[in-house]
Amino acid sequence: MKKLILLLFLSIYVMVSRADEGMWLLSRLKQYNEARMKELGLKVPVDVIVDSLSQAIISFNGNGTASFISKDGLLVTNYHCAYAGIQQSSSDENNYIRDGFWASRREDEIPLSGINISINRVIKDVSDEVNAKLIGVKADRKVISEILSGIVAGYRKQYPGMQVNIRSYRNNSLHVLYVAQSFSDVRLVGAPPYAIAKFGGETDNWTWPRHGCDFAYLRVYVSKDGKSTGYHADNVPYHPDVYLKVSTEGYKKGDYAMSIGYPGYTNRNATSMQIWETQHVLNPPMIKIRTARQEILQKFMREDESLRIKYAEKFASSANYCKNSIGMNQWIEDLKVCEKKAEYEQAFLNSCKNDSVRQYYESVLRDIEKGIKDAARYRIAMGYYVEALGEGCEMLRFVSSFGKAIPHAQRDKGEMRANLLVNVKMYYKDYSEKVDRTVMKALLKIVRDDLNADLLPEFFETLKNEYRGDVDKFVDDLYEHSVFANQERLLAALDNPSLNIKEDVVYKMSEQLEKKRGELFRLVDGKRAVAQRAILEYNKGILNFDQQNYYPNADKTIRLSYGTICDLPLENGDVKPFQTCLSGVIRKAKSDNPDFYLPDKLKKLWESKDFGRYNQNGDVPADFIMNGDVTGGNSGSPLLNAKGELIGLVFDCNWESMTRDFNFDQKLHRVICLDVRYLLFITEKYAHAENVINEILKD
To answer: Of the listed 228, 635, 637, 657, which one is catalytic?
Structure first.
């Protein structure tokens, strides 16, 4: 009887805690979500979302989302998603980061390199097809993989030229087919100045209220016969089968809203020990190293506009996740996430049908703890290696990425050499020797001081013995003597076949680093393998325990999240309203703070009150929040109203939601969205880009 009562309680607990949370598979919406979505206000049939609207939603470069908003392939995403392309296109002469960019004609649109987008053409639950082939078969990992490969091969014949993939969930009982089409000729159409797009900077990042106008327009091009291809001057705008209607009607508190996008990765089943590992093992090295590097980059960027252009995207990317991790650690503590997960684990153990099963899962949880704690020391060291010596020091990162190709390129005058030369020029375009030298000095000191000698690569012995621990002198010598210190020396080395690149001091340093990193990886892999096997067993166990409203962890496949537009009530009784306006932007503006600098042109627009069709009670709506469920990768996702019309762009989450990858708290977690009326106001009134406005609103 006690167990029955407990199970009933847990069922209620799960249903309450998971009210409208979820990054839902589109293939299961009709079966599991349609009734609730309609109850909240959805007016468009779910079939229309799955079969039609989803084809207007774009996976942007594998780490963001965009959507088509015109019949001529115009798409909109977040400014910060397109930031790398804007930065690549900028120069001292054409500083699009500072000034913004607007193409008044199609021929002025700027081709962007390194951008790939894809659209799902087919989303289909193929569980019955897969499971039929598993009947009477011992379904181990190899067998399942072979069966899936065979089914995928059949669909590839059915959809030639498309990307075909099957994702499996729920202990290989749920299988979803995705057929996607990719495009690579993507061009920049328009973007506001950084000061408007990212108003509030790192000060406001991951917080609410917000006042940014985080958007950019791009266009997809194809060959004249409609085929996806790389850039060519003769390419023409792509005509999507489906594009979103942009609505200027607005919304009110309590209105239904939904986002469709490509969230990155979540781990909602994480155990208390996995969250402990994130808080105490994975995040601290990253936070410490990135904070030190960002302070250096920021100093140089504020002193030199040319360096700001070079390092703008690198700084923003680093700072964004760094602050996220700081918030994550804080809210793991404040919300007692580890303790709550431990309570959930105990409830699961209590629900086990007999003592032997309970004892088995008790041992599973002990194995998770042992594996994680045994590997912690080495995994912390790996964190320093990745952040400081892998990502932070750019000269070392280049050698690690391309160094082994250089001896071949010195001899080979063919394709390998040509490809390497392209990579060299692209890499060093946004590199500064003086900046990197300063960064390396700071980061090597941190690594030396924080890690024990047995965790350090061999060159730290050279630093200790030959340089008496003088990091500055050691680093100066590296940059004075290595061919990798700048592009000119490296290109000269490539033209000198007699130069033995393997004798270069930084090449040797990189080899020592790789050797030690390999040792650490093997130690981590061996010790944490115990935990990894136990985690798989635990996840199988809780599938039978927690049946309510199942949705898989996010994995960069298309998902839908829904909820309502609402305020943010805080535990101290304060309430943060659901909407901000242009008046708030003006109030926050400060000329002496780079995060809150605002162009005079926008201030004058405010003074003139020339708001046109975007006027709302003498103001312009800026940003708003809703209580949906999103994570990294949802940036740029369209926020749709009950009729499936675009009313905003997802661009952030609030500070209180930093643990969202592990858990969802409907009271505190909010999705921060750019109001489409602010986006259009900047396009029309600030940039005078009537060509874009006409394409969006008069299409």
So the answer is: 635
Question: In terms of Cα–Cα distance, which of 300, 208, 164, 271 is closest to 567?
Answer: 208
DSSP labels, 601-614: HHHHHHHHT--GGG
Q: By percentage, how much of the chain surpasses pLDDT 90?
A: 90
CA distance 350 to 373: 25
- Between residues 504 and 7, which one has the greater pLDDT? 504
Nearest to 447 by CA among 399, 523, 392, 484: 392
Look up tokens 């060519």; give the residue.
232
Domain ranges of the chain: 2-116+184-265+555-697, 272-543
The verdict on whether 214 is a catalytic residue reads yes
State the catalytic residue, choosing from 59, 80, 657, 661: 80
Q: What is the mean pLDDT of residues 106-132?
A: 95
- Rounded CA separation 555/265 (Å): 5
Instruction: Report whether 328 contacts 276 (CB < 8 A).
Output: no
Average pLDDT, the chain: 94
Residue 310: both structure tokens together:
């070079």
Q: Please give the helix or strand (H or E) that residue 15 lies within, else none.
A: helix 2-17
Q: Which two tokens stand for residue 71?
A: 């019949």
Q: Are 626 and 563 in contact (CB under 8 A)?
A: yes
- CA angle, corner 51, sides to 49 and 56, nearest 5? 70
Quick one: how far is CA 666 from the chain centroid? 22
- Residue 137: pLDDT band by 50, 70, 90 thresholds? confident
Residue 377's pLDDT band (cuts 50, 70, 90): very high
Known catalytic residue at 80:
yes
Q: What is the pLDDT of residue 132?
A: 92
pLDDT at 416 exceeding the cut of 90: no
Cα–Cα distance measured from residue 637 to residue 362, given in angstroms and rounded to the nearest whole number: 41
Q: Quickly tell me which residue has 């989803």 as its tokens.
A: 54
Name 25's Cβ contacts closer than 8 Å, sequence gap at least 6. 169, 176, 551, 552, 557, 559
pLDDT for the residue 367: 98
Is there a contact between 30 and 127 (Cβ–Cβ < 8 Å)?
no
Backbone phi, then psi, for 73, in 5-degree steps?
75, 15
Single-letter amino acid code for the residue at 179: V
CA atoms of 564 and 332, how far apart (whole Å):
26
Whether pLDDT at 11 is above 50: no
Q: Is the pLDDT of residue 1 over 60?
A: no
How much is the pLDDT for 222? 97
**DSSP states along 141-155:** HHHHHHHHHHHHHHH
Cα–Cα distance list, 29 to 24, 70, 89, 269, 547 (Å): 7, 26, 41, 21, 16
Residue 18 has pLDDT above 80, yes or no: no
Q: Using the predicted structure, report yes or no on whether residue 7 has a pLDDT greater than 60.
A: no
Place of tokens 């007016």: 43
3-state secondary structure of 189: strand
- pLDDT score of 470 more than 90: yes
pLDDT, tens digit, 9 for 90 and up, residues 536-585: 999 999 987 866 678 999 999 999 999 999 999 998 899 999 999 999 99
Average pLDDT over residues 208-217: 98
Measured in whole angstroms, the distance separating CA 7 from the mean position of its chain's CA atoms is 37
Round to whole Å and give the CA distance between 674 and 175.
34
Catalytic residue among 20, 185, 214, 436: 214
User: What would the two tokens of residue 128 be?
Assistant: 């019955």
Taking alpha carbons only, the member of 693, 698, 625, 652 closest to residue 217 is: 693
CATH 2.120.10.30 fits 2-116+184-265+555-697, yes or no: no
Strand (E) or helix (H) holding 65: strand 64-68
- Please compute, for residue 103, the number of CA atoms within 13 A of its CA located in the half-sphere on the CB side: 17
- Within 10 angstroms of residue 97's Cβ, the number of other Cβ atoms is 23
Taking alpha carbons only, the member of 538, 92, 203 closest to residue 345 is 538
